[in-house]
Write a sequence for this structure.
């Protein structure tokens, strides 16, 4: 199983293979992301789109964002969808290798409390994100 980055000029051509894998993750953002916003961010290179490949088949997709605050660079896993957490785990080291290559020192993700429990053991809870509806 390998992870394959999609070039920004190929986003539209590759999106149909990735969209089914990301639909649930996009829905879980409760309107903070849409297919259109993700595609546009990938096209602008604000986000990176990755296909999880198993043989010649797309077996999942990941969307990342590089965050650089001038002190450290972090690669955020913004969205992910695969057949199982095992499939994500199988390509996580490849994603980490790319992150190190671009100078990042951490991988991070925002996850629900339920999803956080499913993260592999070497992922550590680093913060709690809370929100209040004021609208």
């Amino acid at each position: 199983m390998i992870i394959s980055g999609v070039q920004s000029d190929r986003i539209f051509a590759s999106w149909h293979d990735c969209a089914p894998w990301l639909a649930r993750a996009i829905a879980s953002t409760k309107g903070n992301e849409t297919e259109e916003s993700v595609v546009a961010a990938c096209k602008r290179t604000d986000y990176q789109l990755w296909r999880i490949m198993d043989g010649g088949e797309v077996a999942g997709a990941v969307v990342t964002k590089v965050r650089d605050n001038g002190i450290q660079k972090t690669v955020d896993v913004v969205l992910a969808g695969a057949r199982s957490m095992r499939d994500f785990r199988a390509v996580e080291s490849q994603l980490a290798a790319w992150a190190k290559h671009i100078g990042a020192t951490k991988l991070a993700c925002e996850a629900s409390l339920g999803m956080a429990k499913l993260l592999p053991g070497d992922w550590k809870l680093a913060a709690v994100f809370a929100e209040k509806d004021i609208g």
